[in-house]
Amino acid sequence: MKLFLTIIIAAMQFLIVILPLKGKMSDENLRFPHLTGKGKLLVLCCIITLIATVWLYSKVENDENTSRLKFERELKIELKKANDSYTTKIDSSNKTTIEILAKYGLKVDSAQTRIEKLVKDSTNVVTKIYNSEDPEFAMYKIETIKRTADTLKIKIFFTSNDATSYKVNFKMDIAILDLKGKLKMLVKDFNMLAPNLTLSKDKTISYDIDFPKPNYHSIVFRMKGTYYKFDNKKFNLDRLYSYEINKETPTFGVPSSLRNDEMKAFFQNK
Q1: How many domains does the chain fold into?
Q2: Are residues 53 and 157 in the same domain?
């Protein structure tokens, strides 16, 4: 349909240019000048051009909206699948960790966020493993796993710098920056990792996401939530990261201060 409308518009514009060169558009010899046959045809061409242009614009807008909604729907499905798979892996990993610690006479005290030594007598001796540094839970890097004309698969890495991060809970807002520099929200308040996560110092954990049709400038992430130190000192998370894919080698980083303020305002208003 869009090709047909484009051809109609081009044909009408051609006639609009040619008709005035082929003769008079109006007969001025009469007392009340009126349009000649060519003049009426010229007016008709203008009307058809206007109608076809409006129709084409409406069609393009509708196709873009349909494509965007399909994109968001497919992305949410992929994110849910990945999240369900990741939660299962975390539960299995936690079970394995508990079993390993038990072999060495240790246990995890999740309420106090510490590792304790199992004691079978009445002395109740507890061995606490502490670190005086404040932890910094952050997005570490992003890697492209696969990219085609129809899909982009990336791996997001998280790390805990300087010390172990306890009871990590955060949600992720994800938006895209299109080729015109306009931000569009894709997903809001997405639980990317398992709740109350513990991540040891300098260790990393990753998460895979599939994005359909990567025909945009970059992906913007807002990570918001909380995490704790071993002594229950609380830290708030509210950080922005971007992954620029509109180049041969994608770039991961933090937006500039100007773009950072603009993007934060965008997320807060959604």
Answers
A1: 2
A2: no
Residue 179 sits in the same domain as residue 52: no
Domain assignment of residue 213, given as a range: 68-76+134-268
Q: Which two tokens stand for residue 203?
A: 């260790």
Q: Give helix 37-103 / helix 2-18 axis angle, nearest 10°.
A: 150
Residue in 197, 155, 194, 189 with CA at minimum distance from that of residue 171: 189
- C-alpha–C-alpha distance, residues 170 and 225, integer Å: 4
Q: Let me know if residue 200 belongs to a domain.
A: yes
Walk along the chain (270 residues) and give the pLDDT tens digit of each residue.
778 878 888 888 887 777 777 767 666 655 545 767 777 787 888 898 888 888 888 888 887 777 777 777 777 776 666 666 655 555 555 556 555 555 555 555 544 444 445 444 444 555 555 557 899 999 999 999 999 888 899 999 999 999 999 999 999 999 999 888 899 998 899 888 889 999 999 999 999 998 877 788 999 999 999 999 999 999 999 999 999 998 888 999 998 877 888 898 999 887
Indicate whether 138 and 53 sit together in one domain: no
